[in-house]
């Protein structure tokens, strides 16, 4: 049997449970468990902790086999949610959260709203009926992605946001 690296959880299909914290991390194992017992948990998938080991062993590379498995789970998630990652009318947005076997509040990185871009922003604005909400979601994605992935200091984003607020206040008043 082929090694599994990605585990799906959703109302009708769950791959994992609370006893898999070594593989799924605490958050992933608990999401699978809650989904499995019928609690209202949004569907998703967990990339196993073993991927981190493979990534480190291969000098920061993800093998094609794992990338393809992630894409298969993304397509499965699209099917369950009836949304499309990158879709401009009903965009699927995902959160990427770090995890560990034990809970470490505030210590692990998160990127929210992955999947937003200039095209999907319009779909989210239309779906929510609130362009300001969609723009704020996009701003949060850029801020988190810049901080977590690109390692741009948070203060840089905060300085820009503060300058824009001051500028707008001067225009309004």
UniProtKB/TrEMBL annotation:
<dbReference type="InterPro" id="IPR010121">
    <property type="entry name" value="Pyruvate_phosphate_dikinase"/>
</dbReference>
<dbReference type="GO" id="GO:0005524">
    <property type="term" value="F:ATP binding"/>
</dbReference>
<dbReference type="Pfam" id="PF01326">
    <property type="entry name" value="PPDK_N"/>
</dbReference>
<dbReference type="InterPro" id="IPR013815">
    <property type="entry name" value="ATP_grasp_subdomain_1"/>
</dbReference>
<feature type="domain" description="Pyruvate phosphate dikinase AMP/ATP-binding">
    <location>
        <begin position="22"/>
        <end position="67"/>
    </location>
</feature>
<protein>
    <recommendedName>
        <fullName>Pyruvate phosphate dikinase AMP/ATP-binding domain-containing protein</fullName>
    </recommendedName>
</protein>
<dbReference type="InterPro" id="IPR002192">
    <property type="entry name" value="PPDK_AMP/ATP-bd"/>
</dbReference>
<dbReference type="GO" id="GO:0016301">
    <property type="term" value="F:kinase activity"/>
</dbReference>
<dbReference type="GO" id="GO:0050242">
    <property type="term" value="F:pyruvate, phosphate dikinase activity"/>
</dbReference>
């Amino acid at each position: 049997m082929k090694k599994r690296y990605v585990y799906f959880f959703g109302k009708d299909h769950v791959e994992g449970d609370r006893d898999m914290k070594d593989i799924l991390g605490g958050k992933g194992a608990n999401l699978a468990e809650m989904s499995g017992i019928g609690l209202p948990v949004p569907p998703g998938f967990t990339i196993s902790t073993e991927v981190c080991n493979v990534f480190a062993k291969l000098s920061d590379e993800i093998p094609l086999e794992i990338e393809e498995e992630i894409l298969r789970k993304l397509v499965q998630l699209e099917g369950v949610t009836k949304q499309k990652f990158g879709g401009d009318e009903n965009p699927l947005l995902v959160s990427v959260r770090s995890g560990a076997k034990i809970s470490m509040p505030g210590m692990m990185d998160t990127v929210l709203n992955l999947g937003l871009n200039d095209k999907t922003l319009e779909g989210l604005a239309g779906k929510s009926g609130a362009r300001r909400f969609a723009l704020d979601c996009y701003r949060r994605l850029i801020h988190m992605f810049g901080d977590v992935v690109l390692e741009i200091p948070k203060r840089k984003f905060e300085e820009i946001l503060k300058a824009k607020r001051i500028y707008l206040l001067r225009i309004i008043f």
